[in-house]
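Quick start: what a row looks like.
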Amino acid sequence: MLALNAPHTPEAERRIASALTAHTAVEGLAALYARLDAPTALRDCGMPEDGIAEAVEPILAAVSSSAPALTRDSLTALLRAAWTGESPR
């Protein structure tokens, strides 16, 4: 979600990047995960693959008004990438 929201919230993105002493918030978070040897895929945290479809509607309901660019398709793609551990783009 950070990669998706960062371009729309430049001040917050800058503050997160600064707090993580990184060029971007996404880079800083990735570096933090690496330092902590933290899981980077939802599947590694125990989420089953069918959890992607189950998560879409509750997430959309919770954030729809604050994230107008978030669609069912974009959220599904985002969750699939997070489930596999794909790096944010």
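That is the whole record. The mean pLDDT is 89. The first helix runs from residue 2 to 5.
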